[in-house]
Amino acid sequence: MASDNIYLLTALPPLTESGSKPPLSLAELRAHVADSPTVALVDAVLIGDDLLLREAALSGEAEASELPDPSVLGADQVRGRELLPDYLDGDEGGDGSARFATDQLQARYFAHVGQVARRGGSQLLGAWQRFELGLRNALVGHRARTLGLDAASYQVAGDLVEPDPAIDAIVAQWAAAPDPLAGLQVLDHARLAWLDERDPSYSFADDELVAYALRLLWITRAWRLRQTSEGADPAGWTPGPAREGQMANRQGQEGLQL
Which of 45, 221, 233, 246 is within CB 3.0–4.6 Å of 213 for a Cys-Cys bond? Predict the structure, then answer.
């Protein structure tokens, strides 16, 4: 309810521009809304970042001790020492490859986001699920075709995706970027522009908290990459973004970013 969100939103710091230091961490945002009915909506956004950290740990891209603290999942779940929640855990068989397992986890994640959006009546969260999944599949499909691979075999939860000409334009800009980091910046700017068109600012509705979580998520990832590219000391914001930045850079090349 709007009245319940007035305190939550007014107590949050204004968000910075993309590429600048976030005013709070993703884990701090989650703690801020932990006792609110909107926590499930915010969690649906933040879990995506936790899964990115998990992939970094399990793939060997980062030492578990170097990862930022997860926001929703437990540290042992991110490290692969404990099972994921039931809505993310599953065994679909397949070819046993790491790619298949990652794709299936992503499919379960996006399906979960859609379910949370419907239960919570969040139009913004549902729209973000379709946009982000469509963008992910378009990026992966472009990369697969470039490598002469079957793009269809790399798609995730295609039944949840709706055609969006705007995504084709974003992918074209991303593909024309001179390097992977510039490509990631194209994606960051596109995501923020997408949100600017839909941000229900000053409505105090639940979706305003969803918008805040999405914006903070993208600002945080941009900050991590900037710290990595500039070789800055990251100690002021997280114990170890360098490896994560390397992984995000690799994902940008492959079109596999969450």
Answer: 45
